[in-house]
Design a protein that fits this description.
The protein is α+β, with helices and mostly antiparallel strands and 104 residues long. The protein has a single domain, classed as Alpha-Beta Plaits. It is 26% helix and 35% strand. A four-stranded antiparallel beta sheet has the order 1-2-4-3.
């Protein structure tokens, strides 16, 4: 892989009421650190054949010392629907407008 990581879909839920697919994915990224949200977003969009603007990475979790991460990803039917539903901070993070931070 040119990205240095591999994504595997573990779980898919079709939420027709909201107009989105909810995915749980496993990201294998040996021997590197956790990939950035933007790279995961692009990879999932390419994997599913959709526009990256309808893909939102909600959360990426990596256990200490592991080269595997798990992410929750929402894939919407349209950009407008995504902007109506997703919280503003998630939209900013996925657009790269807000950097990651540490919890205190």
């Amino acid at each position: 892989m040119t990205e240095g990581f591999k994504v595997e879909v573990l779980e898919t839920r079709d939420n027709r009421l909201i107009g989105r697919r909810e995915l749980v994915v496993k990201i294998s990224h040996w021997p590197q650190g956790t990939p950035p949200r933007s790279a995961v977003r692009e990879y999932v969009a390419k994997m599913l054949g959709v526009d990256p603007d309808v893909v939102y990475v909600r959360r990426i979790r990596t256990e200490y010392g592991m080269c595997e991460s798990y992410a929750r990803v929402h894939v919407y039917d349209s950009v407008d629907r995504a902007l109506q539903i997703e919280p503003e901070h998630i939209i900013r993070k996925n657009r790269g407008e807000e950097g990651g931070g540490s919890r205190t």
